[in-house]
Amino acid sequence: MFEKRKTIVQVEEGNELAPKFDEKGLIPVVTTDYDTGEVLMHAYMNKEALQRTIETQRAVYYSRSRDAIWEKGSVSGFVQHIKEMRIDDDQDCVWIRVKVEGGASCHVGYRSCFYRSISLDAKKGQLEFCEKNKTFDPETFYKGIDNPTKV
Amino acid sequence: MFEKRKTIVQVEEGNELAPKFDEKGLIPVVTTDYDTGEVLMHAYMNKEALQRTIETQRAVYYSRSRDAIWEKGSVSGFVQHIKEMRIDDDQDCVWIRVKVEGGASCHVGYRSCFYRSISLDAKKGQLEFCEKNKTFDPETFYKGIDNPTKV
Q1: Most buried among A76, B25, B106, B144, using CB within 10 Å?
Q2: In angstroms, rounded to a whole number, what is the distance separating the alpha carbons of residues A24 and B134?
Q3: pTM summary value
Q4: Per-position b or e across A29-53, b if 16+ CB within 10 A of its CB
Q5: Domains identified in chain A and CATH numbers
Q6: Distance between CA atoms of B137 and A72, rounded to whole angstroms?
Q7: CA A14 from centroid of its chain's CA atoms
Q8: Residue B88: closest CA among chain A residues belongs to which residue?
Q9: CB < 8 Å to A12, chain B
Q10: Are the Cβ atoms of A37 and B42 closer than 8 angstroms?
Q11: For residue range B65-124, what is the model confidence (pLDDT) as tens digits?
């Protein structure tokens, strides 16, 4: 499904999908909510995950913490249905617009992983919660599963 | 301005900005248009770029191709004014919502770097142009400057 990268014109101005995977074989992915435009997640895909996402029209990522293919929603039920997929100029980043079954995307329990803002006013650099309440209880959904967040 | 990362609870549920920079000292950044929600760019910041972005409320990135601090708009004039800044659950990605002077963000000449969609229908994997016309002529704006896209 993926073409070889040959020239800058091909990559930037062409119709061939020629994604660039980094030295770990991954490409970053930005996931936004199809209805609200909110950024829900930032994650990664490898070749197999990108191919399966295109084929199934459901988001399949590559989990760096588990070092494995990650079918989003397989544990939580929060499957992401792809409504649109885009790629950037140099084809080293993918943007997917999704409808989320169950309405949540973040393992901490929030709708979006970006549930905190960075203050730009007096408290520069302090974080403020944009989402006041969790959408679900992660203890119930992810019981016995390691937290992917690493200190 | 940045705190040390101590515990998962601090990182995920706290009010301290404790960003995780990768092994190259970088953190990925998703840039969206404040008015339309469109994803404009995916780029990187290092510590200095993140600090200067918070302080000046203008997007400052780190250019991997030039290996240098990159004040967005310093050549093109397409300065990105920060309206909101967010960070994700494990604080390894930043989302900025911006108003763009001049209305373009992509070095190829388009409004957004994500000017092509990946077809999900019959032509699976073929790219289709979402933006039909360039917003500006890159030859004029970036004369004599190397193209950051690498094959």
Answers
A1: B106
A2: 33
A3: 0.95
A4: bbbbbbeeebbbbbbbbbeebbbbb
A5: 8-108 (3.10.20.810)
A6: 40
A7: 25
A8: A114
A9: 108, 149
A10: no
A11: 999 999 999 888 999 999 999 999 999 999 999 999 988 889 999 999 999 999 998 788
